[in-house]
Amino acid sequence: MRRDDMADLAAFAVVAEEQSFTRASKRLGLSQSALSQIVRRLEERLGLRLLDRTTRSVAPTQIGQELLSTLSPMLRDLDASIGALSETKDKPAGTIRITTVEHAARQFLIPALAKILPDNPDVKVEVEVDYGLKDIVASHFDAGVRLGEQVEKDMIAVRISPPVPMAIVGSSHYFKRHPAPSTPRELSRHVCLNLRMPTSGTFYEWRLSRNGKAVHVRLDGQLAFNALGPIRDAALAGLGIANLPLDQVHEFLASGQLQRVMADWSEDLPPYYLYYPHRRHGSAAFRLVIDGLRWRNL
């Protein structure tokens, strides 16, 4: 394969992934016209139409998608190999991209990174908070953080937290209007503040257990959010009851702004894990982040 062919194929892959000449040109540092000429030249050389173009959208044809499916893993492996070869400094360097949920970011990632980053100025970490289940390879993340049960079996997983205690809470103002529940059945009479999961489109289920009896329920309510912070704020405002990580509400329990109910029914969530694909290169920066996040039961 000629050097020009490889460069043109790489440019096509970026356009197909971004489905936009505008975004692809910014990513590659080329003008849109130059990038369009590169793709047109590649199509002419192959005798194949790789992209469908309209005034509003760009998408790979069926042949283009087949080429992209073969090409993308090869380019990622090449980038990883070059990155590993180029990392010759004594100090770790490079950018690590992580997708995570809000709670894990606040309670585990940020405290761990506070110990790592000040002494490693050449390491950069980009954290994206998203409750959806990302394909980290397709989305160009180096790693993800989710509850252990949500991690795909083909990923390498590193535990970064203990189990997560939960607490069902509400404000005193709310409980003046609604008698506190004591059983899962009584929850159906309450305004339950829900977390909408973007991947499934359903509400996150409340996990309850007592004396070995587990009850997992999805409850209706007037309010639903896509993050835990607003759910806690709504509970503080007296708009309903919420099932939240205990570490997110303990200060409000201590101050009396929130009251805990059904403590005997609370069930811990599984630990969080950092996960990444087997093909992820073991750069010094990546190893540093993994080691810094690793949970140690001391």
Automatic annotation (TrEMBL):
CDD domains: PBP2_CrgA_like_5 (cd08474). SUPFAM superfamilies: Periplasmic binding protein-like II, Winged helix' DNA-binding domain. Keywords: DNA-binding, Transcription, Transcription regulation. Coiled coil: none annotated. Residues 4-61 form the HTH lysR-type domain. Belongs to the LysR transcriptional regulatory family. PANTHER family: HTH-TYPE TRANSCRIPTIONAL REGULATOR (PTHR30537), HTH-TYPE TRANSCRIPTIONAL REGULATOR PGRR (PTHR30537:SF1). This is LysR family transcriptional regulator. It comes from Qipengyuania qiaonensis.
